[in-house]
Design goal:
The chain is an alpha/beta fold. It is 42% helix and 28% strand. The protein contains eight helices and eight strands; from the N terminus they run αββαααβαβββαβαβα. Strand 6, helix 6 and strand 7 form a beta-alpha-beta unit. The mean pLDDT is 95.
Length: 189
C-alpha cells in the first residue's frame, strides 16, 4: 500500500467509519457504516481521492482500451468524487468533465436526470464513481441511466468496497470495477 493510500485509509477510518445499527442503501442491516462524505468533503481526502483514482485508472488499463470523456455517478455520494477526479486529471493535462446522475428527474427547469451532458459527446466512454459499494445497486442504476442517455459506462471506481457482491453485479452488466480500499483495510487501520 502506498503512503498516499495509507493516509487515505487512516483518514477514512478517522472521519467516516462508524459503529452502531444502520440500514444500507441495499436495505441490508449492518453494525457499522462508512459515511464517506466526511472524507470526500475534506480537502486532504478529496485531493488524495482525485490523485489515487487517477493512478487507479492508469493501473486498470482502461485508458488503453477506452477514450474516457467523463466522470461522475449517482448524486450525492459521487458528486465530490467527480470533482476531485476531474480536477486531478485537469492538472495532468486531461479534460474529463464531471457529470451527475439524479435519483429522480427534476420537476422543474430542464427536468434532466443527468447533469453535465453538454460537456460529454454522445456515445462517449465514461467512468462511474462511487464512494462506498455494497451490492452495487446504486451504480447499476446509474449505468442504466447513462446507457439510456447514449453514453458508454466502461468502469466503476469506488473508494471503499464492502466486498458484498458489487463486483459481480457490475460484471453482470458488462462493467469492470476497481477499488482504492476494502472495508477490511479500513477496519484494520
Amino acid at each position: 500500500m502506498s503512503d498516499e493510500t495509507s493516509r487515505l485509509v487512516a483518514l477514512v477510518k478517522r472521519l467516516s467509519y462508524r459503529t452502531g445499527e444502520y440500514t444500507l442503501a441495499s436495505g441490508k442491516k449492518s453494525t457499522f457504516y462508512v459515511d464517506l462524505k466526511n472524507t470526500t468533503l475534506h480537502p486532504e481526502g478529496a485531493a488524495l481521492i482525485g490523485k489515487l483514482f487517477l493512478a487507479m485508472i492508469e493501473k486498470t488499463g482502461w485508458l488503453k482500451r477506452h477514450a474516457i470523456q467523463g466522470v461522475g455517478g449517482m448524486t450525492l455520494g459521487a458528486d465530490p468524487l467527480a470533482t476531485a477526479l476531474s480536477l486531478a486529471a485537469w492538472q495532468k493535462g486531461t479534460s474529463w468533465p464531471a457529470y451527475i446522475v439524479r435519483k429522480d428527474s427534476k420537476g422543474h427547469g430542464t427536468g434532466r436526470t443527468i447533469e453535465g451532458l453538454e460537456n460529454i459527446p454522445a456515445g462517449s466512454a465514461v467512468l462511474v464513481l462511487e464512494d462506498v459499494v455494497t451490492t452495487g445497486g446504486t451504480s447499476v442504476q446509474a449505468i442504466e441511466r447513462l446507457r439510456e442517455a447514449g453514453l458508454n459506462p466502461v468502469g466503476v471506481l469506488t473508494v471503499v468496497d464492502r466486498e458484498q457482491g458489487a463486483r459481480e453485479a457490475f460484471a453482470a452488466v458488462g462493467v469492470e470495477m476497481a477499488a482504492l480500499m476494502t472495508l477490511q483495510e479500513v477496519q484494520d487501520a
